[in-house]
Amino acid sequence: MKLIDGKAVAAQIKMEIAEEVKQIIAAGGKRPHLAAILVGHDGGSETYVANKVKTCDETGFQSTLIRYEDDVAEETLLNKVKELNGNPDIDGFIVQLPLPKHISEQRVIQTIDYRKDVDGFHPVNMGRMAIGLPCFVSATPAGIVELLKRYGIETSGKHCVVLGRSNIVGKPVASLLMQKSVPGNCTVTVCHSHTKDIRKYCLNADIIIAALGAPGFLKAEMVKDGAVVIDVGTTRVPSTETKSGFKLKGDVEFDTVAPKCSFITPVPGGVGPMTIISLMRNTLLAAKKVVA
After folding, report:
1. How far apart are CA 223 and CA 225, in angstroms?
2. How confident is the model at residue 225, as a pLDDT?
């Protein structure tokens, strides 16, 4: 069993991005600029955005954080999105999800200019990804594919089971892995809450990507020997072992599943670090106007 170290791969990519930014600036180019809109004070969102701002500093990007209280009017938020769309100094921006209930996430996402949508959630980016055109791929699926690539994990002709059908992870990662590309060329099965006998599909899988948000869902008896397991789950569960009183738990029962795997990602330290670095890579692509 080999542990896939997302932290180490993300650190390597961070150095590569920082080096490219140095070269752009040395050649008289513009420093990439990422903006983030944060609504309210959700603990998880606060942490994610703080990490994004910190990574901007470490890669030589400029960053702008725009805050609103959680009672902000939808129209106010949409007007700010339109303002960022029209600001030539901002290369890419994100609106941190989830948003308060009174705001339509889809309306906000669709208002973002797809050429600045570095989260890769806009329908235009989703559609372009599905047919293999240049686009911003959402950060978690991009991070998963990058890990498979950097660890030289064979995907061509393999059976990949994706657990979960969210627009942010399940659907896009399934689409990426069936593309004619490397990594890619998988036969993909997407399972979800209405799938009958999930165990049968998992036992037949060479690669399992668990993105259900159900802690410890994937058990050893669902995994065949030699499978590759990518755990996207990050659920906070109460814990007496940590100072904070909680710990992050993945969708995979790691201790029992890991001995059966050829490769597996831990939680934390697997897919998580790749998500933020994929956002940075998208911002660099936005600054270079790769998606037009």
Report:
1. 7
2. 98
Phi-psi region of 253 (alpha: psi -120 to 50; beta: other; left: phi over 0): beta
Which homologous superfamily does the CATH classification assign to the domain defined by 29-134?
Leucine Dehydrogenase, chain A, domain 1 (3.40.50.10860)
Distance (Å, whole) CA 12 – CA 259: 27
CB-based contact 114:124 (threshold 8 Å):
yes
The average confidence (pLDDT) of the chain is 95
In this prediction the pTM is 0.93
Q: What percent of the chain has pLDDT over 90?
A: 90
pLDDT of residue 47: 85
Q: Which CATH superfamily is domain 139-273 in?
A: NAD(P)-binding Rossmann-like Domain (3.40.50.720)
264, 5 Cβ separation under 8 angstroms? no
Q: Which residues are catalytic?
A: 52, 96, 119
Q: State the DSSP code for 99.
A: P
H or E stretch covering 75: helix 74-85
The tens digit of pLDDT for each residue in 37-59 reads 999 988 888 888 889 999 999 99
Three-state DSSP class for residue 34: strand
Phi/psi of residue 49, nearest 5 degrees? -70, -40
